[in-house]
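Team,

Forwarding the record for the chain on the shared tracking sheet. I've put the sequence and predicted structure together so nobody has to dig through attachments.
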Amino acid sequence: MGGGRKISLIDVTLRDAHQCLWATRMTTAMMKEVAPLLDDAGFEAIDLVGGAVFDVCVRFLREDPWERMRILSGWVKKTPLIVHHRGQSLFTFELFSDDVVELTAERIFASGIRYHTTYDALNDIRNLEVPVRAAKKVGLYVVGGFVYTHSPVHTDAYYTKKIRQIVKLGVDAVFLKDPSGLLTPERVQTLIPAAKKACGRLPLQIHTHCLSGLGPYVALRAIEHGADVVHTATSTVANGASLPPTELFVSNARRHGFGVDIDLGCVKAAADRLAYIAGREGKPVGSPSEFDAFHFHHHVPGGMITNLKAQLAPLGIGHRLDEILEEAGRVRAELGYPIVVSPFAQYIITQAVLNVMSGKRYATVPDEIRKYVLGYYGEVPGPIDPDLLDRIGNGAEPVTRRPGELMEPALDRIRRERGPFTSDDDLLLAAYYADGEVAALKKAGPIETEYPLTGTPLLTLVREIVARPDITSFRLTGRSP
């Protein structure tokens, strides 16, 4: 069926996969022996750092993400590493001034990265203008993304228009980002050919999650209809809220007549090491999700639902989860169908919780929702009822300018108010985070790169025994030669 057409893969094991299944808690040390195996496997690129990864590195793992980029660039020598960010919002939920965006591109390149993917959560291509231009200027290979969702607004015509706008920015490739796993085999039949035509000569990449259980099949159907590159994850951290497993996709694609130059022996070895780490750290391994039609109403990613359950339980309203998710779908429609991806996933859920808790819808509206409906984050996808718009926006005039133009240059002010800085990396950390977060990160010191997996089997055994508080002594015996 594939006629021998070559398909390339991008590995997401070191970024999106553990973000989905391990709450983004894969440390640099855990990557030490896995990364070289993935490097040898033959991927087009390996995804390393994105918004959540950058944020968790700083706030929770206390690992400098710039340092992580440099360390992994030393371990991965054959395959380009990817830094992925949210356009004008970079690695956080807030928009940044153009000068911060431009310096970020410079430091990504300076940290050893050569491959860059970026998208805007509202598909407002204006929010990609400066990020793409800055990345291309420093020499990065740039892939511009459009975010997929299902709604009356997000038609094939909508997406082909957006793709043509992305192509005009001068990107090297285009990717479809389906963060909630909403893409179906039926939609693939129309969207992928239309998207591929809009891409022209540029490669089309597919990034779809497995929340609906359809991800592996959707990825296969996507290449049958013209997609060139598929994002996959090592099986240990695939499926569920993550992406399709590399091993299964390669097997399926080859059986359908496509050429996929991936060494599955390397991937299996990486899967084995990740399984060891998962067992040692008490982390889950990926398993297929069951199909749930309710997911296509609320669109909320699985990891976010898990966190929501944990937050509702102490309030005594855990039993109202389905009611809140039902309300989330309704809120999304009323607000013009924003895509349920960060930060709008969080905004929609917050508004849904407030509506359900108060019993009076939109009695309380977060500032972020007000800014969204007024266009401060970008173009609102669909129409909002005029009465609701007036109620939320308090009669304020909507913003029509490019959101980045509303931001004053920030770097000189940050240098003056919070400097001096020993490097531009530290300057950017100060732009993204408050002083307390940056200070805690610096206090943690250099990144630890050794994990008990590292070394000979005997050394690993000894380290594991030493880590067990219930073992006070051991004896090593063996037969004489």
